[in-house]
Amino acid sequence: MVSIRPDEISAILKQQIEDYDKSVSVSNVGTVLQVGDGIARIYGLDQVMSGELVVFEDGTEGLALNLEDDNVGVVLMGEGVGIQEGSTVKATGKIASVPVGQAMLGRVVNSLGLPLDGKGEIATTDTRLIESMAPGIIQRKSVHEPMQTGITAIDAMIPIGRGQRELIIGDRQTGKSAIAIDTIINQKGEDVVCVYVSIGQKAASVANLVEVLRERGALDYTVIVAASASEPASLQYLAPYTGAAIAEHFMYQGKATLVIYDDLTKQAQAYRQMSLLLRRPPGREAYPGDVFYCHSRLLERAAKLSDAMGKGSMTALPIIETQAGDVSAYIPTNVISITDGQVFLSSDLFNSGLRPAINVGISVSRVGGAAQTKAIKKIAGTLKLELAQFDELAAFSQFASDLDAATQAQLGRGKRLRELLKQPQFSPLILAEQVAIVYAGTKGYLDELPVEKVSEFVRELREYLKANQAEYINAVQTEKVLSDASEATLKAAIKEVVAGLMATV
């Protein structure tokens, strides 16, 4: 016979009463009214926030964008094949966030920070909201350090500084992405974290980019955020914000970062698609009225932080594709007005063999000399002016039969400067080499050299300096100044290389 002990029973009851958890969990649940074209309309999510993540029965995530009186418009972040009318939807209470941190370097992720490269999970517990406030004026400092692209034409004439937003704009197939990729490759050894955001491109293009960066040792400090053309519009719209969040994490740790958005035209088109499907009113070119805010809140996050905030920086290079060189279209004018200058690439120059095909007349940097080293500022002052004058004279000289000697000399100088600034892809130049090349052109050392020999001169001079004048390269690279001694060394080197080439003419 089992004896019942009242004190034991009362002790168990007391314990259970003490452990009773009286907190009530209220879950915000709704029902799918209709679904299609990547958009779901939900009834009953009364407490949902704008931009909040919701989860459908089949595990698909969505983003609540339209909060209307009787329903909520949700954009799907997946195929959503298993979602049916009448199925339940749960609000998560969370705004979209992505994993961030050192473990992201060298990885390829999607717009939600999930790995796409088959290298397994990303070992980080840190996360950051995809949308966050841009730093205020007090938290910023004016741009004063150069972000060397390794492309002579840009570093000499349209300099980019750390914390600047410089737009790369041009028609398709004019070398916009090439400039961005060269800039990433040139950050090797500079302790700059790079984030490349690919929007609406073929998956094969992203795979090629990964291979190019790996071959050149640039993947170790780069994160690639890929939202390919086959992915839903919602992920293409979110990708730039994900890239910004990943870079911001490093910026607030005091590091220099570089973010490339390739390209924001496709993001605007994805946003337009979502907005029209959500039945938001269309504006100019059928884009929604807030497409400007869509880009401005993204690009304002790029900044050079003050000393008190840790001196970090985030440099943004947004890319915009134009149609037939029309920079007055809606999205190009919007982004031009947000950024601190633009590098305009012309298809005419590209087809004529000038690569990078930078149109010096339209391109501008609103930071200017503040983002240049003293070495390049000293010698590149006249370069942009001479090239702009050459363009005018070249157009005029087509109609003039006989030109005076001064005009002919100026045209000859312009042709040689154009040849000097030609640069093959994936071959960024160090500062000392850029200084040497620009110096030779602007000081007139090549005026007697045949134009077709100029590219050979560039190659020979670089090799000569590396082999025989290592002290010149070291001095310019470390001091960032062209001292009298370095200038004398450079003059002698240029004269020797020119003399050698003239002997073969």
Task: Write a brief structural summary.
38% of the residues lie in helices and 17% in strands. It has 505 residues and is α/β, with parallel strands linked by helices. A hairpin with a 4-residue loop joins strand 4 and strand 5 (72-76).
Topology, element by element:
Blueprint: H1 6-19, E1 29-36, E2 39-43, E3 52-56, E4 61-67, E5 72-76, E6 88-95, E7 97-99, E8 108-109, E9 127-129, H2 152-157, E10 167-170, H3 176-185, E11 192-199, H4 203-215, E12 222-227, H5 233-251, E13 256-262, H6 264-277, H7 291-299, E14 313-321, H8 330-338, E15 341-345, H9 347-351, E16 364-365, H10 374-380, H11 383-397, H12 405-420, H13 431-442, H14 454-468, H15 470-479, H16 484-502
Parallel strand pairs: 8-12, 10-14, 10-15, 11-12, 11-13, 13-14
Antiparallel strand pairs: 1-2, 1-6, 2-5, 3-4, 3-6, 4-5, 7-9, 15-16
Helix pairs in contact: 5-6, 7-8, 10-13, 11-12, 12-13, 14-16
Q: Percentage of helical residues?
A: 25-40%
Extract low-pLDDT stretches.
Answer: none
Number of strands: 16
Q: What integer value in Å does the Rg equal?
A: 29 Å
Largest sheet: 8 strands, mixed
Distance between the termini: 119 Å
| Number of separate helices | 16
Overall 3D shape = elongated
Strand content: 15-25%
Structural description of this entry:
The chain is of the alpha/beta class. Helix content is 38%, strand content 17%. Strands 8-12-11-13-14-10-15-16 form an eight-stranded mixed beta sheet, sandwiched between helices. Strands 1-2-5-4-3-6 form a six-stranded antiparallel beta barrel. β4 (61-67) and β5 (72-76) form a beta hairpin. α10 packs parallel to α13 (431-442) and α12 runs antiparallel to α13. The longest helix is centred in the middle third of the chain and has 19 residues, at 233-251. The chain starts with 5 loop residues before the first helix and ends with a helix. The model has no long low-confidence stretch (mean pLDDT 92).
